[in-house]
Specification:
7-stranded antiparallel beta sheet, 25% strand, 6 helices, alpha+beta
Length: 221
């Protein structure tokens, strides 16, 4: 609750002109983190999410979806390896991107299930046209354009991530060959008689019509 209040306050300051050092990208990202999460209206094989009616899907293939966000292309790619990792290797984290971007920011968002995840935003290129990568819990969003254009896409990327639900079972079934091993145990009763007070251990092994020869006798019953 404290986190949501803090984000809301920062948004008011930005939109009110108090955050003079912040740019349009920060404003759009802040707006997305407090936007109302709506019921999913899009669904594919692996994920479901909400997409604004004025935006659209240009193409969907495998784990990659191409959107039209206010007339600008944005790609969303499901990071299958992170879902598999989260199921089987919960103590292992993915490596960060090795390249040094022109700009790198990070923050957090709360999704439709009220879970909080971190996101990272990378901007590459110092000229007018830039490339932006937004890395959320299990999705990468990529777009190319001016600062205003990538800001619009960045806002929708966070908004989509907040409404998104991944079908982990479907991902594991499609992309992982690792199977859970279920171990079963069965009781094996070795001895049906108590250890005699006197005598050798071979006396314990003799049972009804079948018996194991006593050491040194060389005979079988």
């Amino acid at each position: 609750m404290k986190r949501k209040t803090a984000v809301s306050l920062s948004l008011v300051l930005l939109l009110g002109g108090c955050g003079s050092t912040e740019d349009v990208l920060d404003q759009h990202i802040a707006s997305a983190t407090v936007r109302e999460i709506r019921k999913a209206n899009q669904k594919d094989r692996f994920v479901s999410y909400y997409l604004q009616k004025e935006d659209g899907i240009l193409k969907q293939e495998g784990t990659c979806t191409q959107f039209s966000i206010q007339g600008k292309c944005m790609w969303m790619n499901l990071r299958v390896e992170d879902i598999v990792r989260s199921v089987y290797y919960t103590d292992v984290k993915a490596d960060d991107l090795p390249a040094k971007p022109y700009r790198h920011e990070s923050g957090s968002y709360t999704d439709v299930s009220d879970d909080t995840y971190d996101y990272s935003l990378y901007v590459y290129g110092s000229g007018r046209i830039k490339v932006m990568l937004v890395r959320t819990a299990y999705e990468d969003f990529i777009c190319v354009g001016t600062l205003d254009e990538i800001a619009d896409c960045g806002e929708e990327a966070i908004a989509i991530a907040r409404s998104l639900k991944a079908d982990r079972d479907a991902v594991i079934k499609a992309y992982s060959k690792r199977n859970d091993i279920t171990y079963t145990t069965d009781s094996l009763e070795l001895f049906q008689t108590l250890v005699p007070e006197e005598g050798g251990i071979d006396e314990i092994l003799i049972q009804d019509s079948s018996a194991t020869a006593s050491p040194g006798t060389g005979e079988e019953g």
